[in-house]
Structures are given as structure tokens and as C-alpha cells.
Amino acid sequence: MTISGPTLALVLFLALFAGLIALPVAAYLVIGRPWTLKGLALLDRLRIANAVCNYDAWLSLRGIPVQRRRALRTELGGNLWESARESGARVAIQRVGSLRMLAAEAPATTRPRWALGAVVALLAFELFIVLQLVLTSVWLDGTRASGATQAEGAISIIPGMRASMGPDSLGMSPGPASLVVAALAFVLVAQPWRAFRRSVQHLAAHER
Amino acid sequence: MLKGVLSLLLLSLCAEREDYGYSLVVRLQSAGFDELAEGSVYPALTRLESRGLLEGRLMPSPAGPARKYYAITPDGRLELARTETSWLGLVRSVAAVLTSNPTPQGAPR
Question: Do A96 and B50 touch (CB under 8 A)?
Fold first, then answer.
């Protein structure tokens, strides 16, 4: 796969925009659901939505399944809303205490963390592509400094990656490395072996 | 609060009537547990639910977000009876020791 310079820049910009701005904002709105917190000031709604998002993130890190997380965060949001109507969101959140500890108290599960794995894999992929772009830029500067107007070469630090330069164009062939990094991040974070451990626990429970 | 007492209290309140987290906190606080942290009540409810002693259901609220109401289950009633007996026995035993060895007025404790 060879991508031209302007297209590559546009793709990278869109990927970074989606990853760093649009996705967190969308997640904040979907998870925090500030519009359901009727009767509260905007700032209080945002505080509660933020607390619910933090709680969900901690639950997610513990590998709590999506459906269970939704139920837990809905419950917390409802309780915070009730409490905030009497004493304000700041006090309501303080009364709950550490959201990390609250999430740690949720009954543990050993299911694979597919969603978290997918998010981390996407971020790893994006970061690796950015790294490849930086390497291409360094290669380009070196090639131009040598006086060449046209060149093609391998970036040896990343297997399979190649870069090319013409009088009016720049090309980068990222190779399979970014996909390998994303897959590795996905496997390490999602931990698919948790499903096996869970089935072993179920078997043990049935045998008892 | 002593270990297990919060569960006993929550089971007892839910046996009285189905209720949701924040309301249970308010009921406990108005019963005298002023220092009770909400952060300890919500996980306790979740634990009781996962043990099958309470049953939770989300109910939409016209005024705001949905509330999760907890009701006691048959297993919860058995557990409530068992822990209530243990607690009352403990209270009687402690009272017996305290009344047999009262601390004299002005004596260092």
C-alpha cells in the first residue's frame, strides 16, 4: 500500500481528530448522559457526567462487561442526581468518595476486555502511524540534505516499512508493523485467555 | 461500622420496603448513622445483589435518571433472620459483660 503525501496527512489528521477529540467527547456524552440529569445547573450536570465517566473507566479497566457497567453507572448517576438536588453535585460526588475504590468494590468478573482492547489497539495503531510519519520525515530530510531529488528506501528500524521521494511527491509504505502493534496491544489488553479461565471456574463451580 | 452490620441494616430496610441507593443512605442517616459514607452503601448493595440476597430493578423516573430499586429475596429474608439473631445475641452478651463490670465514674477508661 502506498499513500501519497497530502492524502497521508489528511488521513492522519482525521484519525487523530477522531481518536483524540471526537471519540472522547462522544463517549462522554453517551456514558455521562448529562441531559438526563434534569433540574440541575449545567455545571452540576457536567460534574456528575464526568464522575460517571470516570467510574465507567475504572469499571472498564477491571474488565466489567459492558451491560453490567451500564447498569452500575446508571445507578450511580441516579443516586448522584438525587444527592445533588439537595446538596449540589460537588458535595454529592465527595460523599461517594473515591470512584476507583467504588469500582474496585464491584463484583469481579473474568471476562475478556474486548472494548478496552479495541480502544487501546486503535490508539496504538494511530501512535505507531504517527511514529512512522515522523521517521519518514527524518528520512526525507536526510535524503534531501544529500542532494538527491528522487529516492526510495527502507526504514530499517521498522520491518517492512519503505519510503519514497520524487520531485513532487512523497510516499510511505507502512508495512504490516502497525497492524502487528495494534494486534499485540489488543491481545495484551483484551486478555482473551480470561474467557478460558472463566469457563474453568464455571466448570469447577458445577463440579462442586 | 462493624463488619456485616451494614448488610444487616440494608437487608432490614429493604425488607421493610423496596428502595433505591440514595434513599437507603438517607434512611440510615436519619436513623442515626450520620457518618455513613455513600461510597460504602452502594458497593454493599451490589454485593448483596450479587449474593442473591437482594434483587435490583431499574425503574424509569419522570423527574430524572432511572433509579435502581432493591427488594429482598427469600434467601435475603433467611440471611436477615440469621444475622438478626446473631446480632441480638451479640448485643445481649456485650450488655451482660458491661452490666457485670460497670466502669466507675471518673475512673480512667
Answer: no
- Interface of chain A toward chain B, CB-CB under 8 angstroms: 33, 36-39, 71-72, 74-79, 81-83, 95-98, 101-102, 105-107
Whole domain around residue B28: which residue ranges? 5-97
Between strands A170-173 and A162-165, the pairing is: antiparallel
Domain count, chain B: 1
Chain B residues near any Cβ of chain A (below 8 Å): 20-23, 25, 37-40, 42-43, 46-47, 50, 56, 58, 61, 63-68
For residue range A111-160, list pLDDT tens digits in order.
787 877 888 999 999 999 999 888 888 888 888 888 888 888 888 888 88
ipTM of the complex model: 0.77
Task: Tell me which residue of A72, A68, A79 sits closest to B65, measured CA to CA.
Answer: A79
> Is B105 inside any structural domain?
no
Name the percent of chain B in helix, strand, coil, to the closest 5: 55, 15, 30
Among the partner-chain residues B40, B64, B68, the one whose CB lies closest to the CB of A75 is B68
Report the gap between the CA of A74 and the closest CA in chain B (Å). 7
CA-nearest residue to B61 within chain A is A78
B65 occurs within a structural domain: yes
Q: Hey, is A149 helix, strand or coil? A: coil
The residue to which cell 457518618 is assigned: B35
For residue B27, give the CATH number of its domain: 1.10.10.10
Contact B54, B70 (CB under 8 A): yes
pLDDT tens for each residue of chain B, 109 residues long? 566 889 999 999 999 999 999 999 999 999 988 888 888 899 899 889 989 999 999 888 778 888 899 999 999 999 999 999 999 999 999 999 988 876 666 555 5
Q: Which residues pair with B54 in a beta bridge?
A: B72
Does B106 fall in a domain?
A: no
Nearest C-alpha in A relative to B68: A75
Query: From the CA of B15, how many Å to the nearest CA of chain A?
Result: 20
